[in-house]
TrEMBL record:
One of its GO terms (molecular function) is glycosyltransferase activity. Transmembrane segments: none annotated. Belongs to the glycosyltransferase 15 family. This is Mannosyltransferase. Pfam families: Glyco_transf_15 (PF01793). It comes from Discina gigas. The lineage of its organism: Eukaryota, Fungi, Dikarya, Ascomycota, Pezizomycotina. Keywords: Glycosyltransferase, Transferase. InterPro entries: Glyco_trans_15, Nucleotide-diphossugar_trans.
Length: 402
């Protein structure tokens, strides 16, 4: 995407942010890990704070890159791959988080740093709809082994667009709340999902990460990586599939040859090149986006950008409660060939209510993983991984049930 185009997006212009070195991020026990999600914008105008941050010892990426033989821990089963060390990819760990979640954020950071980032020193990027507190910045900076940046999300990217009929949206929230649909009555959750769906990757603070995803992804030509896949609550996305089909009908050129429709639609045969229409019903399978490794270039590309804009124009983020996970997943599943998508079978991950644990011996004998192999969502009845295996095969480190 060109700079001009990016600039036309008001959310991309969310300028001001304050860059400092520190670190942080939020997911629960990760058996090692890389990226995630998030967004930002922030301003720390306080000269005092700025000075305090300037004064702390800095570990710059450039310095780290010059080390010759870092304490590298082989985390992958893919021994044939030359992995660039020291965080030389243009990648960051992104965490969208609230100030009050500082403990959880620190725990997630600790986990990622201990198992992975202490050897790579990738930067952390923290995004919040409110300015981060001094405490949040100090602690997360202290936890990070690499540079850290904080940004505050612009109101424009974290509020209902003026096109939304507020009465209608409120009506939907009350109704979903009465039906006890998870986050059904929450406005901020809707802001969050819309932001993660369509804005985080265009924020000013993310611009420097516009090329490569992490090394494995790059060396294997992957665009999107996930760890857990499951079914979405149908009540939150009642019209998402219909809208998606509408979009493809108007933009059939974006439907990739050899896409993942077979994973998204049971019994689908519409994965051949040249298909212009999607048939069948969405089976609700989606990649869980609270952990994902993605090329920002994909989100910023024409297909996903137009898809998000189309979805956003329908108001479904507010009238219903579309999650960023199914939105990302439908984009990934339809606009990318399936071989661009990777299941990281050798990464353990936990986010209530699901956990997965690598099944291969090496992940455990190396000391990298502490998780219980039998606590593995992959083969749970709510997991969509078997459907993924059906179209993409089983990766090293994953196991089908006996
Ligand atoms: N700054 C900020 N972060 C939020 C807000 N709502 C959710 N998040 C973050 O967005 C991510 C997903 O939210 P979460 O409540 O965990 O949703 P779930 O993972 O879908 O159950 C987490 O990292 C939260 O910290 C919000 O209102 N403000
Ligand atoms: Mg969460």
């Amino acid at each position: 995407m060109t700079g001009t185009k990016l600039w036309r997006n008001p959310c991309a212009a969310v300028g001001a942010l304050y860059t400092r070195f520190a670190g942080k991020r939020t997911f629960s026990r990760i058996c090692y890990s890389l990226a995630v999600i998030a967004i930002i914008y922030n301003l720390y105008e306080s000269a005092e704070l700025r000075k305090a941050l300037d004064d702390r010892p800095q570990l710059k990426l450039e310095t780290v890159t010059q080390q010759t033989e870092p304490d590298f821990q082989n985390w992958s089963d893919h021994d044939d791959i030359t992995i660039q060390r020291n965080g030389t990819e243009k990648a960051t760990m992104v965490m969208l988080v609230r100030n009050r979640e500082i403990r959880e954020a620190l725990a997630s950071m600790r986990s990622v740093e201990d198992r992975f980032n202490k050897n790579f020193h990738y930067p952390w990027t923290f995004l919040n709809d409110k300015p981060f507190t001094k405490e949040f910045i100090e602690y997360t900076t202290g936890m990070a082994s690499g540079p850290v940046e904080y940004a505050v999300i612009s109101e424009e990217c974290w509020s209902m667009p003026s096109s939304i009929n507020v009465t209608l949206a409120k009506h939907g929230m009350v109704e979903m709340s009465n039906q006890r649909i998870i986050y059904g009555g929450s406005l901020s959750y809707r802001h969050m999902c819309r932001f993660n769906s369509g804005f985080f990757y265009n924020m000013e603070i993310m611009k420097k990460y516009d090329c490569d995803p992490f090394t494995f992804m790059r060396t294997n030509d992957k665009v999107y990586g996930f760890v857990i896949t499951m079914y979405e609550f149908e009540a939150t996305i009642k019209t998402l599939w219909a809208r998606t089909k509408e979009f493809i009908l108007g933009n059939p050129q974006f439907l990739a040859a050899n896409n993942s429709l077979g994973f998204l639609v049971d019994g689908s045969e519409a994965s051949a090149a040249g298909d212009t229409e999607i048939v069948g019903n969405y089976n609700l399978c989606h990649f869980w986006s609270n952990f994902e490794i993605a090329s920002l270039n994909f989100y910023r590309g024409e297909a996903y950008t137009k898809y998000f804009e189309f979805l956003d124009s329908t108001g479904g983020f507010y009238y219903e409660r579309w999650g960023d996970a199914p939105v990302h997943s439908l984009g990934v599943g339809l606009f990318l060939p399936k071989d661009k998508v990777h299941h990281f079978a050798d990464i353990g991950y936990s986010h209530p209510p699901a956990s997965r644990c690598p099944q291969d011996d090496k992940s455990h004998t190396s000391g990298r993983c502490l998780c219980n192999r039998s606590n593995n969502f992959d083969t749970n009845g709510y997991s969509c991984l078997p459907k993924w295996w059906d179209i993409a095969g089983v990766n090293q480190g994953a196991k089908r049930p006996e």
